[in-house]
Amino acid sequence: MDQTSEKFEERYRLGQKLVEQLGTVGTDPSTFELLGREWDLVPGTYAPRPGTGTEWYTGAIPYPSGGRFLEIGCGAGVTAVWAALHGCAHVTATDITDTAVDSAVRNAKRHGVEDRVRVLRSDLFAELDPADRFDTVFWNCSVIEAPREFEFTRDFEWAIFDRGYTALGRYLAEVHDWLLPGGRALVTFNSLGDADRIAQLAAEADTSLTLLDSAGRRLEGVDVTYKVFEITPNSR
Ligand SMILES: C[S@@+](CC[C@H](N)C(=O)[O-])C[C@H]1O[C@@H](n2cnc3c(N)ncnc32)[C@H](O)[C@@H]1O
Questions:
Q1: What confidence score (pLDDT) does residue 78 get?
Q2: Which of 194, 138, 185 has its CA nearest to residue 161?
Q3: Whose CA is nearest to atom 13 of ligand 1?
Q4: 19-33, 87-101, 129-143, 198-212: least confidently modelled range
Q5: Which domains are assigned to the chain?
Q6: For residue 1, what pLDDT is reported?
Q7: Which pLDDT does position 153 carry in this prediction?
Q8: How far apart are the C-alpha atoms of 69 and 56, rounded to whole Å?
Q9: What average pLDDT does the structure give for the chain?
Q10: Protein residue closest via CA to atom 24 of ligand 1
Q11: Ligand 1 binding site (Cβ under 6 Å of any ligand atom)
């Protein structure tokens, strides 16, 4: 979308509001509850409250039983830990912020799965071993497009904003390089983001998106529809 359009501005303003409403305050580690468990939270990390997509996606996505699961942008590590607790033999979790990595490491330990959850600070796939391959790769992506010149000043902003949707575009273009034969690439999107843009980015990456599941929730007084898509290459 044209970054000067009214709709773009409206979404961006909502993103700014969510940063203020959902961003953690204070400097001391705390805990939160989700999915019947208690989780560590290092300030700066996205805290997935009830009503956020994390709660629904974590229960809805197809985990590879006995297989290798890669979560991009793991935040506090809820989905990564859940995957390890629900049959994945190996989980790699990456995030671009140190605070998320710190939270996810703590949560793997707290829930006794540190032997099979590896957490890395990485911009998408950048810090993975080039030989790494996975049965399923998943990203609950940062869904609101920020202006191309946006400067990230707080870790938490990475959980809401994607500058010009460049990270999402790279994810769609690169994710299939990390799959084992028969592996699956997944991405989330929700109604706070620009559905036309994700369709455009998928086409530019020569991929197709198939809706696997969706659910409606209320988040901070706003109705949101969460969707999980499978990404398939058009020409491989
Ligand atoms: C919507 S949040 C989801 C967090 C967590 N997976 C959850 O569901 O609660 C998106 C996450 O992606 C991370 N992220 C954003 N851009 C990234 C990038 N280029 N590489 C890796 N992680 C990124 C953010 O820091 C944030 O933790």
A1: 98
A2: 194
A3: 73
A4: 19-33
A5: 6-233 (3.40.50.150)
A6: 56
A7: 93
A8: 18
A9: 95
A10: 159
A11: 46, 48, 54, 72-76, 78-79, 94-97, 100, 123-124, 140, 142, 158-159, 167
Statement: the pTM of the whole predicted model exceeds 0.90: yes
Contacts of 192 (CB under 8 A, 6+ apart): 11, 14, 15, 18, 143, 144, 222, 224
Percent of the chain scoring above 70 in pLDDT: 98
pLDDT of residue 73: 98
- What the block records as the tokens of 46 is 């996205």
156 in Cβ contact with 204 (< 8 Å): no
Report CA(57)–ligand 1 centroid distance (Å).
14
Please name the residue whose Cα sits nearest to atom 6 of ligand 1.
74
Q: Cα of 123 to ligand 1 centre, how many Å?
A: 10
The tokens for 207 are 């991929």
- 191 — phi, psi (to 5°)? -70, -5
